[in-house]
Known about the structure:
Blueprint: E1 7-14, H1 17-24, E2 33-40, E3 58-65, H2 75-93, E4 98-100, E5 104-107, E6 110-122, E7 125-135, H3 149-153, H4 159-174, H5 180-193, E8 200-205, E9 208-217, E10 223-227, E11 230-234, E12 239-241, H6 244-248
Parallel strand pairs: 1-2
Antiparallel strand pairs: 2-3, 3-7, 4-5, 5-6, 6-7, 8-9, 8-12, 9-10, 10-11
Helix pairs in contact: 2-4, 2-5
The structure holds biotinyl-5-AMP.
Amino acid sequence: MGPIVWRVEHFDEIDSTNTYVVKQVRDDVAEGLVALADFQSSGHGRLDRAWVSPPRASLLCSMLLRPNLDATQLQLVVAVVGLATRTALERLCGLRPQLKWPNDLVVGEKKLAGLLAEVLETTSGFAVVVGLGVNLTYEGPEGVAATSVRREVGVTIVPRALLDIVLEEIEARRSQLDSKEGRVALRDEYSRALATIGQHVRVEQLGGSLSGVARGVDDAGQLLVEVDGVLRAFGIGYVVHVRSSDVSQR
Ligand code: BT5
């Protein structure tokens, strides 16, 4: 596979960069389409939650990737973008956030960035749209434990500058998705960057919830949770972090 040809489309204002890129997906649209916005009027997270930011205070973007993966391995695409973002921030300003499974970048307990993957199945395989919101100067909505790059390191980064380095870092990891050895290397980098490992988590499933301790991730990017002495793998959407204070109340 050759290098990704990035095609960045810039919007002063849009409803949501994810919604836009999802709408552009067709069988023959190649990976590399990127939407970048100064402002989103209806930015969203998972489960219809809102993602908010005033104009030009965050990096707000979405990119299209078309990896050749099974449905169970798609969390690895989120891992690639999360790791790329972390490394890009480190390169630009020395900030080294941790990843929080499945889709946050955090500094301590504070949310710095969120990722949102939407998957479409086409006749030429999966199209994965990964949205990324990074607080550059905005410190998050009232009542949310959040932070910004400026608050953490005193540096004001321009969204496009961060985007360009994020895309470079995605490119550097992209081919890892295509081979077993690459996915193992990715899994290892992901495990090292995850704040979640060693923490108590609650796994919510149909029929009830389980609690356990996160021990690692597998080759598919699924979280390995030790529940009653047995290691089990869980996909995105099932695991809720538990703060240590909640655990002691059980
Ligand atoms: C996420 O969802 O964290 C994924 C956010 C993805 C946003 C990007 S921006 C570009 C692209 N276009 C979109 O429309 N979306 C993507 P989730 O884990 O569901 O977290 C959502 C929760 O984060 C909200 O319910 C708030 O509590 C909190 N939140 C909202 N805005 C925030 C901000 N700027 N900083 C920190 N936390 C925020």
